[in-house]
Amino acid sequence: MVTLDRLVNVLGGYGVRLRFSAVSRSAELRSVVLHESATGGPVVGEVLLAIGAGSVTEAVEWAVAARAVVVLVRGDGEQITFADPAPAVAVMVVDPAVSWSELAAVVYGVVLEGRETESGRGPTDLFALADALADAVGAAVTIEDRLSRVLAYSTLQQDADRARVETILGRQAPEWLCRVFEKRGVFAHLAASDEPVFVGADTEHGMSGRMVVAARAGQELLGSVWVTCSTPLAGAALTALTDGARTVALHVLRSRASADLERQVESELVLRLLEGTADAATVAGRLGLPQTPLRVIALHAHIANEQHAALLLLFEQATTGFGWSRPGRSALAGNTVYTVLPGDQAMTARRWITGLRAALPKRMSVSAGISAGAGAVELAVARQEADECLVLHESVQPSGEPPAYDESWHAILLQRLRTAARSGRVPARGPVAELRQYDHAFSTHYVVTLQAWLEAQGDPVEAGERLGVHENTVRNRLRKMGDVTNLDLQDPRKRLAMLIELAATESE
């Protein structure tokens, strides 16, 4: 069942705004109709698409005649008001840039999905399916996705063991249980076969037996169905399990399809912003992004060798919830998930990343980079900043907090210099190169001494403290360096050039 609140949230990503409402946001929507004057009588339905209405007033008159809960109509930015008593209807105004054909497809899809869910065929009915399977096989059932996250479980708890309890409480199979299944070849079997397999008890870990079968669509593994049982299933129970797995696959596919349309439109709009578009303000408005500073977050994810599965799971989690139920808007481009998040403070973005990580499997690693604050027209530049911060996070401080460009611009600059250095774009000769060669040949410490002296702005005392040696040792080394190379420390431009070269090559 779809409510007005869900429709408002979904259509918010398409530039459709709720401008007036005299009905509850929990009002139920089951049908979509168009105004048709040639039918000989008014059409009746909860959602009315007022295509061809000359004004909001006319559209509302059509909606009242159709006993509609909500009417969608084109309109301008003027405030919508009605004389008392106000009509018991909600008015949503459609952006002129949105075509009726595109909008109608979305509205029909959302409402029909909800209607089928209510009839027991929709994607949110997996718990009812788990209960039906449990009744058919006479044992507790758990339905999981391909990454061992719990999608649903039966209320029947017969023969529940430690493994089942921890799986349900943690909303995913615990790591120790995954290791047991991996060692026994269960995951390899699920990846290759549609046949059910029995997994014997493991008393060491407090696990009774399991019957498991893959839920697959074509060649794609979507998840699995687990039955807690001490002996292999047979006969009618086994048939019920295999048939149930096919139904589970259908439910998961329907759930994915219902969300994918919304994700696709959102992703396309976000990519337009990140690639730079002349109508950035309009696109940001269609996405429901406020006219405040925005930050771009670039994310990578890995689970062992399953980079693509991890990336899709990351994108799915970043786009969980629609409309105004989440602050950011996301897109998947190549091997990176991008999220445009309102907020001027880097800590807001870091809190969002922390929440995202907490919702993902623990064995999944996530790295991120955060741009500086930017307006909608600056998001193409912000994307580059986020990309560079992501590289910095992965290469320099993968275990630390994600860097933000406005706080780490200096590290980004040095990273660019190091990239140039690795491509051979630093002098092969000169003071720094010649001192490094001398250090390698005679085990001296001239390069680090020069860098410490330059960073201390020529103060031998401070340089000595950095190196852990006496200031006279610093002076003595500087004097000997002059015998190795033409070291002109009086020229400020040469000092700057040497410091840049040292910073660009310090990791070598």
Question: Could you walk me through the main structural features you see in this protein, from its secondary elements to its overall organization?
Answer:
Strand 14 and strand 15 (336-342) form a beta hairpin. It contains 18 helices and 16 strands. The chain has helices spanning 4-12, 56-65, 100-118, 126-137, 162-170, 175-183, 186-192, 235-275, 280-286, 307-318, 346-358, 379-395, 405-422, 431-442, 446-455, 460-467, 471-484, 492-505, and strands spanning 2-3, 16-21, 28-29, 32-34, 47-49, 70-74, 90-94, 141-145, 150-153, 197-199, 210-217, 220-228, 294-302, 329-333, 336-342, 365-370. The protein is of the alpha+beta class and 508 residues long. Residues 115-124 have low confidence and may be disordered. Helix 8 packs antiparallel against helix 9 (280-286). The protein is flat, with a radius of gyration of 31 Å. The protein has a five-stranded mixed sheet with strand order 2-7-6-5-4, with helices on both faces.
SSE blueprint and pairings:
Blueprint: E1 2-3, H1 4-12, E2 16-21, E3 28-29, E4 32-34, E5 47-49, H2 56-65, E6 70-74, E7 90-94, H3 100-118, H4 126-137, E8 141-145, E9 150-153, H5 162-170, H6 175-183, H7 186-192, E10 197-199, E11 210-217, E12 220-228, H8 235-275, H9 280-286, E13 294-302, H10 307-318, E14 329-333, E15 336-342, H11 346-358, E16 365-370, H12 379-395, H13 405-422, H14 431-442, H15 446-455, H16 460-467, H17 471-484, H18 492-505
Parallel strand pairs: 4-5, 5-6, 6-7
Antiparallel strand pairs: 1-3, 2-7, 8-9, 8-12, 10-11, 11-12, 13-15, 13-16, 14-15
Helix pairs in contact: 4-8, 8-9, 12-13, 13-18, 15-16, 15-17, 15-18, 16-17
